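Fold it.
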Amino acid sequence: QVQLVESGGGLVQAGGSLRLSCADSGRTFRYYTMGWFRQAPGKEREFVAAIRWNTGSIYTGYLADSMKGRCTISRDNAQNTVNLQMNSLKPEDTAVYYCAGATGTGGSNYYRMPSNYDYWGQGTQVTVSS
């Protein structure tokens, strides 16, 4: 059974860092696109980052404009995990962060749409205090 499990959320002060991980339990997602989205109370789910398999061990990463310069996405195929390193966190980064897997492919905008993802984790809370 496909299962995605997020970890690494928590409470951090503004300017701090967090590293979120998403573990694939039961199925390898190394050939899929894996994404991170977040949803704050009263807001729509929004794209944070994605990483797409190209060929062999080559992947392409995508970041939301708000995360560029502060965030990196990577995957560890040995551990079947996708990691999101977030630095210089701001109070507006506070949200529930979700890991997702997409079986389809498309251009860079394809990976920014939650509706294109087939599998979702339960989410992990990130709270950034001012």
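The chain is about 0% helix and 50% strand.
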